[in-house]
Structures are given as C-alpha cells and as structure tokens.
UniProtKB/TrEMBL annotation:
Full protein name: DUF676 domain-containing protein
SUPFAM superfamilies tied to this protein: alpha/beta-Hydrolases (SSF53474)
Amino acid sequence: KNKVHWLRDANMLPKKIPHAKISVFHYQSQWFGRGSVDERIDNVASKLLHGLDRSRANETKTPIIFIAHCLGGIILEKALLMSRSRQKDFPNVYPWIAGCFFLGTPFHGTSSQSKAMVLASMAEVAGWATPSTLLKVLEKDSEILRSLLTEFSFMARDAQIRLLCFWEENDSDLVNYLIKGITWVKSKERIVDQSSATIESFDSLSLMADHFNLNKYGLGPKDGNYTAVSDELRETAAKADGIIKTRQN
C-alpha cells in the first residue's frame, strides 16, 4: 500500500521547507497507565513535552509548528496548555510555538454512536482506554472536550498562535472497525465532520480524503491534499519568526 512518508521523503516536506527539523512523536500504550481518560491524556501530553523540551535544550531556539491527526489533536491541546502553565518545567516549548495544524481532530465529539465507536476503537488500539470509558468523553460537546477546547482557544488567541483545522470530505470505509455483533453500524460514514473538526473563528480547510488518509499522500509531491497542507505549513513557517516576536513583545 502507501509507502510514501510525507514527513521523511526527500521530495516532500523536507524539500518544501528545507531548513525545518522534522520530528515525530510516538506514544506507547504503557505510558497511559491506569486512571480516568483525562488523567491518561495528561500523562501522554506530559511525555510529549518532556521529550520535546529535552530535544531543544542545547539547540538554537527555533519556532515550533505542530501537526496532529485525529485524537492526537486532543493530546496536543492538553500539551500546549501544560506548556504555558508549566513554563519553568518546559522552558523550551511555549515561548516558541508558532502554529498548530489539526487533521480530523474531534474537538466537539460526535452525536453519532457509530462514529464514536470507531474513534473509541482507535483509542483502544493506542492504549487510551476501553471503548466504553471513552464513549462518554466523545459524546457531542462532552464536558471534558468542551472545557479543554475553551481553554485552548483562549490561549491560542492570546498567544497569536496560527491554528488551522483540516476536515475530511469523503466517507471512510468502516469494515475494519465494525464491532462484532452490531449490525446497524454503517459501512461508510464521515468519521469527524466539519462541525466537529473545526474551531470557531480559526481557519479551516477541507481535504478530498477520508478520515484515515488525511495525513497520507500516496501520489507524492503532486498529491493535491499534500499540496494544500504543505503550502499552509510553508506559509506558517515563513511567518513564524514574526509570530514569536509579537508574543515576546
């Protein structure tokens, strides 16, 4: 299947933004440990910050642009809030954040039980929680998601961070995610629709992709979705120094 990795392929993002240092954060299921879903989110967000802060400790400080897909965006929201409130612990992160790109992040949850089940199943594979515990969190405008987004949006506006949300135009094939014994789940559905994947008063763009391919660009540099995302990344990178200076002033 798709063997092109847009973050590593020499003809893709490394060529588009040649001076960028591109890093990928992989979280492991054992990091989540026990406890409630929000406690586990805190744990992984903290791991992200510790790793990023250490990697930048002995380097010339450069602006940071984050890219997150699906539930990774929830982790990123929490991590950025923690980076601001704990600047003494993570001095190399918050002052340098210039942009955040979200690909299909369910900021507002979903009113569809079938969609919530798919997202919950994805989270179970990653080690977040069992589907039953996460379904409550993924309910439309759940308290956890609403509170997190309210605080995050305020911080992003105050810090003048450039946020851009991408949402899927195509339905996803859910055959591999159907739960055994449940026959009413649709075989194709929009997993995270525009209303859930966007944040009021921040920029958003649609991609001609299903949920699972928002971050996969099999046609290489000529892929239309890649062009849309990478052009915005390049523009944000060009403006990043100005964003940082404005905040520091």
